[in-house]
Amino acid sequence: MCHVCRFGPALVAVGCIALAGCVAPPKEGSAGAESATLSVKGSDTMVQLAQAWAEAFMKARPDVRVSVTGGGSNTGFTALISKGADVANASRAIKPEETESAARKGVTPKEFVVAQDALSVIVNKANPITELTLAQLKDIYTAKVTNWKDVGGSDTPIVLNARESSSGTSTFFQEHVLGKGVPYAATAMLQPATSQIVAGVAEDAGAIGYVGLGYLNGSVKAVRLKKDAASDAVAPSIDNVVNGTYALARPLFEYTNGEPAGAVKIWLDWVRGPEGQAIVKKLDFVPAQ
Q: How many other CB atoms are there within 10 angstroms of residue 13's CB atom?
């Protein structure tokens, strides 16, 4: 089932953007209960999940209004550091230089794992390829291999889809597949949103891309991955993230400025609690362990 389209576009505004201090529990039947607003920005991989969280959270806590915006992990960190967001969503860990930049501005990023993901390699449904090694994937994305026939497929040119550099998913893929500092091939089409990678691969028989587990749908085919030629081919799934067999499993994070308090704490406690984690699983991501 496709969960990507359920909640609308990647830019979602549900409420206002400033945080209004500590929040008391709403008093039943009282219209004058103290209220707050909360801004959550960052990872495009997480934006649909965060919007689903926000919609359910605001029903449980009508005294807190939540705004969710995507744009990439870099966008989230930049907003947190500039105090333009209360919570940064990220599909990668914060970089040392970002931590240093935050310190110069009096911000102390604090990390919370809120879900897990299997970064899924996708191809067109007509592509006969069903599995790839990580070495083959690196050769494809560095243009050492440019035709599917060279990795056991048909005689079809490979069309590369990748995320823009502002994406934490792009950084994760680069570090764990290409190697830190190894650039993508110049022919790679850098897409601003995960949904555009899905659409591009669905429309082009030679295309390849990578997306979060929650973005898989019937329009594309997920490839099983092998850590090396001698390893078993493993599909991206919740079970294979949990049992540690999938090669590109990763945590998904939320960052706050220092120890969370007020509305930020209420939000994080809820997201990491049973209700928030049930939504994680419902959208085909993996609950935080």
A: 12
